[in-house]
Amino acid sequence: MIREYKTIEEVAGPLMLIKQVDGVKYDELGEIELPSGEIRRCRVLEVNGRNVLVQLFDSAAGLNLAQSRVRFMGHGVELPVSEHMLGRVMNGLGEPIDGGAPLPRDCCRDINGTPMNPAARHYPSEFIETGVSTIDGLNTLVRGQKLPIFSGSGLPHAQLAAQIARQAKVRGTDEKFAVVFAAVGITFEEADFFISDFKKTGAIDRTVLFINLASDPAIERITTPRMALTAAEHLAFDCDMHVLVIMTDITNYAEALREVSAARKEVPGRRGYPGYLYTDLATMYERAGRKAGSNGSITMIPILSMPEDDKTHPIPDLTGYITEGQIILSRELYRKGFLPPVDLLPSLSRLKDKGIGVGKTREDHAGTMNQLFAGYARGKEAKELMVVLGEAALSPIDRLYAKFADAFEAEYVNQGFTERRTIEETLDLGWKLLSILPRTELKRIKPELVDKYYKGE
Amino acid sequence: MIEGRILKVSGPLVIAEGMREANMFDVVRVGDAKLIGEIIEMHGDRASIQVYEETAGLGRGDVVISTGAPLSVELGPGLISSIYDGIQRPLETMAEKYGANIRRGIDEPALNRDKKWFFTPTASYGDEVQAGDVLGFVEETPVIRHKIMVPPGKSGTVAEIHAGTFTVTDTVGKLKRKDGTVEPITLMQKWPVRRARPIAEKLPPVEPLISGQRVIDALFPLAKGGTACVPGPFGSGKTVVQHQLAKWSDVDLVVYIGCGERGNEMTDVLREFPELTDPRTGKSLMARTVLIANTSDMPVAAREASVYTGITIAEYYRDMGLSVAVIADSTSRWAEALREMSGRLEEMPGEEGYPAYLTSRLAQFYERAGKTVCLGADRRIGTLSAIGAVSPQGGDISEPVTQATLRIVKVFWGLDSSLAYRRHFPAINWLNSYSLYRDRLTDWFGENIATDWIAKTGEIARILGQESDLQEIVKLVGADALSPDDRMTLETAQSIREDFLQQNAFDGDDSYTSLAKMYALMNLIFSFDKKARAALALGADVSDIAALPVRERIGRAKAVPEATYQTVFAEIENEVDAALAALPKGGTV
């Protein structure tokens, strides 16, 4: 039953109030027909008696209270899913924009998904070799993980994400993979960078793109990532593929959410973002993972730009509390020309411990990882001290640490966006650098492994 | 039966009319899908209901039915080793029956109705029993003997009681009350989660909760029956600290509440705990663990309920005279759930949008912990310790949830991101953390471990404090400006930090340290300090002492297995003596 109403009472910002409505459900999808015949979409935010508050996905320009009609569709926002999505380009509402045929609608999914039962999850533990030393060696990514990149304006997060998408593979397997890419309010150029990169490597045929550019309606950004995740869930859990989801930029998403929240005059949390931002972000991020009854997986790399490079801003902060680690980019390293400029000390992969070691990478991985981190941290401290007091004030051992930190940045961190290092190459490079330090300093590595791999005197 | 109709739907909040007869905090079923909700406000015949499931698809006019009972948990054999959601639905059963995702409107009993338990009565016919008296027991797991108790508020004479195998709903006996009515006794009882279970008396806690974590047990100990909080920014290792406490604490039972946290973390606990053995009993850790998982993507209202569900289960086991620990990760997510509901109710916000009653709700939660004389004639003693993680936004502990928590709890383990960046784990900052139980526990440590335990651990804190002062000077003028004695203090402090406080949760032998080994390790470090200072007095050089290879052995001492540490530590002592004796001594004495 399609119900049509001509009782629009108010339009303010992205919100519209319709009166004398019956039988409309919370979160239902609606269509607004303008006098010109143009169709726009909306979603129910609140049912209050016979009043219904909806959120417009598009601008309200041209909307006429007297003559526009609203139809409610009897279901929530849905995406038709199938393997035919691969290679296609869609807008933020899931409509094809590449001029190709419409997608078959025989299997439609609600884009909100349902929470995964923690008792039915499989713990992610399969090592993904990305070919990037700072990730493989120190912040190891595993299948089913959600590992965001915290970046800032002007930093090369797109290049790093594209490098991961291009190089990542699980060794010794030849399983079906796919990439789902969601552009959330980014510029044409940035989106084009990804698309050309996928085209160049031929990955485009295995990619589903959801594009909401900076010029597209802001409120559509609220659905874009969920469209992408719904597509990813279908490919991963129905088609048994290993899906890498890249979403950029989450900051734009959160701002769209704030816009709606402000229009509803909700009590704000920090910096004007709604109090439910954490829960809202979690319902997206938590859709990554592996689960019982399916061989596929969703690995997620959300990208967000930290306003003023501030990690404590609500968006990176709440993201960090949900995701399983974070890769943080550093402006200082970028200025030095070290690429990818991964700021290692605050970066972290929480799932690394179960993805490394004998049978996965190599026996010495865990020990060298801790040692490299500790050594780099101490070296950086020594260098700070050196700036204040001069090199002469450092103890001989601290001087070695300072030297180690410099070499570490120049060789280990700095590898460029085209080089692909195997995990063995990364680990061996680690040992080469650790050999700058005397053997007695390597307290975090088991003695027998030091015997086997240490190259210093 | 009270039946109302929906008037308003806004996220997890539903307002229904025609509910005048319903009670506050009654559980209701909402809509055709029979979603579970709870009445949290009444205005005339309108009830505000928080719904524990996703509300998409609800509309005006949908039916709301009150069950007439408040949100309650089922208490009986079968709780242990289970994983429940925030309103005690069994997640494993749901995964088997309904697939890997949580659909709406699922109604599954918390305790398995088919499973049979062997009940051994200890009370007999004609016994006069009061609330809390033990009627018999069930061997629930190899380590937990589950006492079947007379539920609070009931008493009478045992009119019938049988040994045998029963399900949780079978009648195992009968209780004849004073007024002559007869009531069946079952293995299961129910209790509303928002009410603390009654106790006879509260006692001050005097015994430590031994966690096997060196920085905690030595510097900031928690008492059995005490309360603690672990605030820290993301990436500082909150969850690992909580997992370590759940694994190694010397309590009889752990209730682990994953409240609004990551799904994979709960999966990790669920997969890992069955394979770990409890160092005290040699049995699987899962045999003493109850899990509550309301992950961040699960409905927010159920998250609010999850901490109450968890602590009620913990209280039930405490009532058996056991020592129980509740670990909640994270109370900030619970506070956010409160804030979200408060916002939807259009209440006047307090600080940062949190409701004004945040502090009192937090206090109510932590006050359910304690050392108590339980109900029952035998006056058995149980303890309930509560440990809550706090996730302050931006790592800034001046935010309302952390501050409200700090006013209540007695132990503060402050996690520090700069320590975490240096991979100093557990990243508990030794300068600003505190434990208000140290004084109360002095006697226990003196009697059971060593008379100078408190003195020695106090010395550790003193040296670390001194180090921080000295570091200020080093930053200004360099280490060379310090006296040899002060430089030795820096060396010892570094040794304390790296060789004692740092503990690798993922290393088999380092993950747990007994108090005896902890004491020996402290002595090893202090003894080196003492001997080195003696050598300094004889004219040895600090740099030479710092560079001694034997220090590497001290550094590895923490990972020496419990079985052999005494011999190995003695060996190291000898080596220290030899190494220091061999040092060149300059100048005259």
List keywords for this structure.
heterodimer, A: 457 residues, alpha/beta, eight-stranded mixed beta sheet, seven-stranded antiparallel beta sheet, 12 helices, 19 strands, B: 589 residues, alpha+beta, ten-stranded mixed beta sheet, six-stranded antiparallel β-barrel, 33% helix, globular
Notes on the structure:
The complex is a heterodimer of chains A (457) and B (589). Chain A has 457 residues and is an alpha/beta fold. Chain A contains twelve helices and 19 strands. Chain A has helices at residues 133-138, 157-167, 188-201, 224-238, 250-263, 277-285, 314-322, 331-336, 365-389, 396-413, 423-434, 447-453; strands at residues 3-5, 8-12, 15-18, 29-33, 39-48, 51-56, 69-72, 78-80, 89-91, 108-110, 121-122, 149-151, 177-186, 207-213, 242-248, 290-291, 297-305, 325-328, 348-349. Chain A has an eight-stranded mixed β-sheet, with helices on both faces. A seven-stranded antiparallel β-sheet of chain A has the order 1-7-4-5-6-3-2, with no helix packed on it. In chain A, strands 8-10 form a two-stranded antiparallel ribbon. The longest helix of chain A has 25 residues, at 365-389. The model of chain A has no long low-confidence stretch (mean pLDDT 92). In chain B, helix 13 runs parallel beside helix 16 (565-581). Helix content of chain B is 33%, strand content 24%. The mean pLDDT of chain B is 93. In chain B, a hairpin with a 7-residue loop joins strand 25 (370-373) and strand 26 (381-390). Chain B has 589 residues and is of the alpha+beta class. Chains A and B meet through strand 5, strand 11, helix 6, helix 7 and helix 9 of A and strand 1, helix 1, helix 4, helix 6 and helix 11 of B.
